[in-house]
Structures are given as C-alpha cells and as structure tokens.
Amino acid sequence: MSKLRELANIEGKTVDELLAEATYDSVAASICSNPGCSYTTGMEPDQDAGWCEECGTPTVVSCLVLAGIL
What secondary structure letter does DSSP report for 51? Predict the structure, then answer.
C-alpha cells in the first residue's frame, strides 16, 4: 500500500478527500515515509522532511507532496 493510501486510511478518508482538505488548510495530514513506520501528524502542506517522533528521523512528508501536487 502506498504511503498516501495508508495515510488516507489512517485518517478515515479517501485519498481525494484527504487532498481536498489539505488544499484549503494551512496544515496537511502527513506520514513518515520510512518503511514499517506509520507515524502521522499535521505539518505544513509543502513539508518533505518533517521530524518523525517515532523513528527520530526527518522523514515525515505531507499528503500533498506524496501526491506530487507540491
């Protein structure tokens, strides 16, 4: 499962719903991109290296970046 679909499932939304919501907000749903880690948080929509509180690495990516929109 792609990280974008995994994030949508965790948030209880479709991918389209997740992206639409993030497009109009200053905070976007984000997920750690490391395999095996599913840490999620809200970050800036253009975030591509946010801090993962579980892994301790700068690997959290927003849904808009995962989708290739930003």
Answer: P
Residue type, position 51, single letter: W
CA distance 64 to 70: 6
What's the total number of domains in the chain?
A: 1
Distances in Å between the Cα of 66 and the Cα atoms of 16, 34 are: 13, 13
Range of the domain at 52: 3-66
The share of the chain scoring above pLDDT 70, in percent, equals: 99
17-52 residue pLDDT tens:
999 999 988 999 999 999 999 999 999 999 999 999
DSSP bridge partners of 29: 42
SS in 3 state form for 20-43?
Answer: HHHHCCCCEEEEECCCCCCCEEEE
